[in-house]
Write a structure and sequence with these properties.
The chain has four helices and eight strands, in the order βαβββαβββααβ. The strands form two sheets. Strands 1, 2, 3, 4, 5 and 8 form a six-stranded antiparallel beta sheet that branches. Strand 6 and strand 7 form a beta hairpin. The N and C termini lie far apart (35 Å).
């Protein structure tokens, strides 16, 4: 079994319910979720003319190969109503593979570690809640160090 970290995000509909549904689907798909970060509300990246996102990170375990995990998470996104129309646009759910153990994967379809995670506070803040001392397998910096160096973005704990 490999430990994986998955980033979840939603800014359409009941954002919190979408995150919870994604966690249930992930576990039901044979990828048991072991830990969940707090939920953060974050300003959108890229297209600013959209609702703010709720984001979180989960730590899970899998026996799937990385490409199989990507296929499985893509099916979960579709099942939860994800429609890809505009890059960085609104979405019911987004599931990104951040880390897969200490593996480095570079294929046309998949890059692990996620190629932009070090630029995204909305990923690093919740990941730091779960694993602040975890080292990025390529950059060799801890999640805490990456968060300290990340570009500015409004990221605040979500409370309803």
């Amino acid at each position: 079994m490999k430990t994986v970290y998955l980033a979840l995000g939603s800014n359409i509909g009941d954002r919190e319910a979408n995150l919870r549904a994604a966690i249930e689907h992930i576990s039901a798909a044979g990828i048991p979720v072991r830990r969940e970060s707090p939920i953060y509300e974050t300003e959108p990246v890229g297209s600013k003319d959209q609702r703010w996102f709720l984001n979180m990170v989960v730590q899970a375990e899998t026996a799937l190969f990385p490409s199989q995990l990507l296929t499985r998470t893509g099916k979960i996104e579709l099942a939860l109503g994800r429609v890809r129309t505009v890059p960085n646009g609104p979405r019911t759910i987004d599931i990104d593979i951040l880390l897969y153990g200490s593996a480095v994967v570079r294929t046309p379809r998949l890059e692990i570690p996620h190629p932009r995670m070090q630029e995204r506070r909305f990923v690093l803040a919740p990941l730091a809640d779960l694993a602040p001392d975890l080292r990025h397998p390529v950059l060799r910096q801890t999640v805490r160090q990456l968060l300290e160096a990340a570009p500015p973005q409004t990221v605040r704990l979500f409370r309803n």
